[in-house]
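Sat 14:20. Reprocessing the chain from the morning session after the first attempt stalled halfway. Input below, unchanged.
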Amino acid sequence: FPPKSGTPAGTIDAICPADRGLKNSKKSCPKTLDISDRELNFIFSEVRDAKAAKVTLIMDCSFARASDVGGPKSAAVTTGTSGTRSAPPLQGAIKDMLLAADNDRRRRIKTLQACAESWKADLSHIVMAACSSGEQARERMFEDDKTTMGVFTRTLVSALTLHRNEMLSYERLRELVSPLEGQTPVVTGTRSSAAVWTQADIPDREMQVDVITR
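Finished this time. Tokens:
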């Protein structure tokens, strides 16, 4: 969603549900809206408050503003070997999208408003995203096992497996997966220098890591 889209919110990234724009049974919002980076920020802040201080969001897509990575980004993610899957903003829906976040009855803390010009991201949780501003997250087929998946996901799983017995920080993990094919992974959050896991988290035997692809 670009700046000046009918709201003072400025540039906003959003997760696009498969049924976006379609009619639903909700009287308050008769069509399925996108989920803004601001709403995601609210969600993960409340998860942190309710569960634990360590909350990490890893996204293999062109999205990182849930922790306020500056600058506008493309909403596209390339798929396969050459195609591009993109989702243009829903016409006239940005205000409704932000209001839906503000009016969500499940939210416990209502002092922060997604529509507010003074909105600032909560940086206490960590967001690790596949690429930086202006870049696109890519996926391709890997010849060794003929699977198609995100380049970032494949590299991240390999790094975590190879270095599973080491004490890694999130920043160090970002370095291990950089650079990629036209992508520069990013990590944001005030805890980005914290350890991904502690010695107590390392299992005595080797773990099998399963990657689920669509």
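The chain has four helices and nine strands.
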